[in-house]
Each structure stands twice: as structure tokens, then as C-alpha cells.
Amino acid sequence: MKMILFSRVLTLLFGSHILLLLICGMSNGTDTDIYCLRSIKDSLEDPYNYLNSWDFNNKTEGLICRFVGVECWHPNENRVLNLRLSKMGLKGQFPSGIENCTSLTGLDLSSNQLSGSIPTNISKLLKFVTSLDLSSNRLSGEIPVSLANCSYLNSLKLDHNLLTGQIPLQLGLLSRISTFSVANNNLSGPVPTFQKCSNFSR
Q: Would you give per-residue pLDDT tens digits along the chain (202 residues)?
């Protein structure tokens, strides 16, 4: 009888422990998304105050889903799906804190005044991104080879920047790419061959 009771207690404790881990995991996931947006806001100059709606004092679940330019997986869950921050006059370098938006699939920072280089580790910052638009900025340097590791990409727009060097031929390994644009830069050399790209602009 004592052994049965002891076994039931252990089962109950184990079940409670697993449940607690799941809850903590979900909480940490949404916390990282909040930290992601906070770091983006802190790292960029916002001369027209578009990001003023990003008020992190209110801890209500799903609040960030009402922020300008933020789309969530679910309106009541602090998990970012897409960031659409184009034409806001934002200044600064590519926000490295974006890696904390761990469920992000779409990023649009086009038509701003971003400068500096595209991070060489961008594939680690944007692990699941399917659409990346950095066009019409002031980004310089070379296109990082690591973009070839963003295997879910189907749209990549880097046109109208100050990029130099060659287009990494490894980008041709992106089997899902249907839109690729690097026009109006200072690029040279051969162009990668894409299997499915129907909308190409160099």
C-alpha cells in the first residue's frame, strides 16, 4: 500500500514538473520576443516616432501584437510572426537583437536609412525567415555568404543599397527562392543560378 502511494506521489510530482517546464518554456519564448522588440527600438533612431506605440510598460499578453509594424502568430500571444517596418525613416545598423524574435518568418526594413553592413551571421539571426526585404537603404559591404544558410527564404530583396563585391554563388543553393533582387548596387561578377526564381533583378 505504501509503495503504491509513494508511486502515485512520484507520478504526480513528475507530471507537475513537466507542466511547469512547459509553462516556463512558453513564458520564456514570449519574453524573448518582447526583448527582441525592445532591443530593436533601442538600437534604431526613430526620427518620426513611428515606434512610440512600442510601450513595454504594459505587460498584458498580446500587447505587442498591437504595436505598429508587428504581426503575431496569434493576436493574444506575444510571439512575433512578421515585422513590417518599411518607410519609417529608421536610422542605424541592422538590429542584431532581432535574433530573439525566434519565430520570425518575415522581415521588411525597406525604404529606411539603415547603414553599415549586413551581419555575417545573419543566418543565425533569422533562422526561419521566408521573406527578407532590406532594399532602399544605405547598406554597404559585401552580401554575406551565410545568407545561403537561410534555407526557408523564398523572397530576398537587397536592391538600391551600396553593396559591393560579388554576389555569393552559394545563394543558388536556396531552393525555395522565387524573388531575388540586388539591382542598383555596386556588385560585380557572375550571377547565381536559381532553380525556381521567376522574379530576378540585378
A: 444 444 443 334 333 443 333 334 334 447 899 999 999 999 999 999 999 999 988 777 778 999 999 999 887 788 999 999 999 999 999 999 999 999 999 999 999 999 999 999 999 999 999 999 999 999 999 999 999 999 999 999 999 999 999 999 999 999 999 999 999 999 998 989 887 665 555 5
Distance CA 199, CA 180 (A): 6
> Which residue in this structure is represented by grid cell 530576378?
200
Q: Name, in order, each residue with C-beta under 8 angstroms of 94's C-beta and a sequence gap of 6 or more.
A: 109, 114, 116, 117, 118, 119, 122, 134, 139
Tally of structural domains, the chain = 1
Write down the pTM of the prediction.
0.83
> Which residues, other chains included, contact 114 with Cβ-Cβ below 8 Å and sequence gap of 6+?
90, 91, 92, 93, 94, 134, 137, 138, 139
Number of H helices, E strands in the chain: 2, 12
Range of the domain at 11: 2-201
Q: Which 8-state DSSP code applies to residue 112?
A: S
- CB contact set of 155 (below 8 Å; sequence gap of 6+): 130, 131, 132, 133, 177, 178, 179, 180
- What's the CA gap between 138 and 56, in Å, rounded? 29
Q: What is the CATH number of the domain that holds 34?
A: 3.80.10.10
